[in-house]
Design brief:
By secondary structure, this protein is of the alpha/beta class. 37% of the residues lie in helices and 13% in strands. The longest helix is centred in the last third of the chain and has 13 residues, at 73-85.
Length: 115
């Protein structure tokens, strides 16, 4: 995740499914915000509705999505929606933003497992 935030891969999209207020408070650089609680169907929206709702382009279906939230619950639910919507490469940053904060504070460079 750290490497992706520092050297983005155009084939991988970091998707923060927390609410906009949470995202504004702290976020992982290069991640996009698709609030699951407010828009549980967000990743299933058509491209135009997605853009009008989130003011960003919808990730293409051939991209890998890495979903995360505060603790993993919302991201797990959003993963189901993403798979049902047609995304085939979807994973979870299991530690989510809490892990990111802990690692940033500790200056950790240990790799993070995705599930």
């Amino acid at each position: 995740i750290k490497l992706l935030s520092q050297n983005p891969n155009p084939q991988v999209v970091l998707v923060d499914v927390r609410e906009p207020e949470e995202f504004q408070e702290i976020n992982i650089p290069t991640s996009i915000n698709v609030a699951y609680r407010s828009y549980p169907e967000g990743l299933a929206m058509d491209a135009e509705t997605f853009f009008n709702t989130f003011k960003i382009r919808k990730p293409e279906y051939d991209k890998e999505l890495v979903l995360f939230c505060a603790s993993g619950r919302r991201a797990s639910e959003a993963l189901k929606i993403a798979l049902e919507a047609g995304y085939s490469e979807v994973s979870l940053y299991t530690g989510s933003i809490k892990d990111w904060i802990r690692r940033e504070e500790a200056g950790s460079t240990t790799p993070v497992c995705l599930s």
